[in-house]
């Protein structure tokens, strides 16, 4: 084991995969100087500008070129700087990358990773702070990954680079400095395998990305009040680990889904509906209000799902109170 930050773990994953496979390369804006968050620092010195490629400020051009390169046999890792900015290339991702394998009858694949830093991060305001994972989970042909720990960020990025399908890889900006133990060697995680962060018997809490850590704080508070919550980190949203979630919720009889994204149309609704169709349990989802994210910290906090709200929702489920 080695101690790494969330940011450094992903950088190590990319470097290891580039050493292992000469067809892996990265492209995006400002990669030569290390990327917006320094997540590519030092890589151009090792691999050169041909494989750590700076691109013009055009997300559509970057992703469109990468889709073609992937179809021709390379494995591009595309940096979109912010998940919000990737919307400038939504046609290339949703209509081209996601559909090519099907439309060409399996004659070509698109082994492409689109890295999209997501979520709220120190007053980044409405155009730099969104969590849009539910959009991508809706699109057939895309894999959607949302790691919450340094170990998972390394293992899942390696899996994404090796995937023959296009992967939308969402790393939460707030987690960049998070430190944790990362397994040595070539550790790779399969998609669709959730992690049970904390076992419990009174209710099941499901989350992903940075919100897992907020939920962990809430679980600790609940434990002090005698409530044992089982916390599940989905890790990937598509595919998602239905078996683990449904088995836990069926056992506890209560399911709370928590995400930073806007609650309306969020992926929590998919989990809640699936659970309602298959098990008998009290179910609630908790997400952000349908409002733009403000620049001022008090406005940002007003739309942030925080631990006290999670505790209140969990206690409401456990005590059978009517939930508003």
What is the CATH third-level topology name of the largest domain?
A: Rossmann fold
Number of individual domains: 2
Distance between the termini: 45 Å
Largest sheet: 7 strands, mixed
How much of the sequence lies in strands comes to 15-25%
Tally the beta strands: 14
SSE series: EHEHEHEHHEHEHEEEEHEEHEHEHH
Radius of gyration: 20 Å
CATH class of the largest domain: Alpha Beta
Structural class: alpha/beta
Q: What does the model show?
A:
The chain is of the alpha/beta class and 324 residues long. The chain has two domains: 2-182, Thiamin diphosphate (ThDP)-binding fold, Pyr/PP domains (Rossmann fold, 3-Layer(aba) Sandwich), CATH 3.40.50; 195-319, Rossmann fold (3-Layer(aba) Sandwich), CATH 3.40.50. Helix content is 37%, strand content 21%. The chain is built from twelve helices and 14 strands. It has a seven-stranded mixed β-sheet with strand order 3-2-4-5-7-6-12, sandwiched between helices. It has a five-stranded mixed β-sheet with strand order 9-11-10-13-14, with helices on both faces. β2, α2 (43-47) and β3 form a beta-alpha-beta unit. α3 (59-71) packs parallel to α4 (90-97) and α9 packs across α10. The protein is globular, with a radius of gyration of 20 Å.
How would you summarize the topology of this molecule?
Elements: E1 2-5, H1 6-20, E2 24-28, H2 43-47, E3 52-54, H3 59-71, E4 75-79, H4 90-97, H5 100-103, E5 113-118, H6 133-137, E6 143-145, H7 150-162, E7 167-172, E8 179-182, E9 195-198, E10 203-207, H8 211-224, E11 229-233, E12 236-238, H9 242-252, E13 254-262, H10 267-278, E14 282-288, H11 297-302, H12 307-319
Parallel strand pairs: 2-3, 2-4, 4-5, 5-7, 6-7, 10-11, 10-13, 13-14
Antiparallel strand pairs: 1-8, 6-12, 9-11
Helix pairs in contact: 1-7, 3-4, 8-12, 9-10
């Amino acid at each position: 084991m080695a101690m790494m930050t969330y940011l450094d773990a992903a950088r190590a994953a990319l470097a290891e995969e580039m050493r292992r496979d000469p067809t892996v390369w990265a492209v995006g804006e400002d990669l030569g100087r290390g990327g917006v968050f320094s997540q590519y620092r030092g890589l151009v010195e090792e691999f050169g500008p041909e494989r750590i490629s700076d691109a013009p400020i055009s997300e559509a051009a970057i992703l469109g070129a990468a889709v073609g390169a992937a179809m021709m046999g390379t494995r591009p890792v595309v940096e979109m700087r912010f998940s919000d900015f990737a919307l400038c290339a939504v046609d290339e991702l949703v209509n081209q990358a996601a559909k090519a394998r099907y439309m060409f009858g399996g004659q070509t694949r698109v082994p492409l990773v689109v890295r999209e830093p997501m979520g709220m991060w120190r007053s980044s305001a409405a155009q730099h702070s969104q969590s849009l994972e539910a959009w991508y989970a809706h699109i057939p042909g895309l894999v959607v990954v949302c790691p919450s720990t340094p170990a998972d960020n390394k293992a899942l990025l390696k899996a994404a680079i090796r995937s023959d399908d296009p992967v939308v890889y969402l790393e939460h900006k707030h987690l960049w400095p998070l430190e944790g133990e990362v397994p040595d060697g070539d550790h790779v995680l399969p998609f669709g395998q959730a992690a049970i962060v904390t076992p419990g018997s009174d209710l099941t809490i499901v989350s992903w990305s940075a919100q897992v850590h907020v939920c962990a704080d809430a679980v600790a508070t609940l434990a002090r009040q005698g409530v044992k919550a089982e916390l599940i980190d989905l890790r990937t949203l598509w595919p998602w680990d239905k078996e683990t979630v449904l088995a836990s919720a069926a056992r506890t009889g209560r399911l709370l889904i928590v995400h930073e994204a806007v609650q309306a149309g969020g992926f929590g609704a998919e989990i809640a509906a699936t659970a309602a169709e298959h098990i008998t349990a009290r179910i609630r989802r908790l997400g952000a209000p349908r409002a733009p994210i403000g620049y001022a910290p008090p406005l940002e906090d007003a739309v942030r799902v925080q631990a006290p709200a999670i505790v209140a929702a969990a206690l409401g489920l456990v005590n059978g109170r009517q939930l508003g």
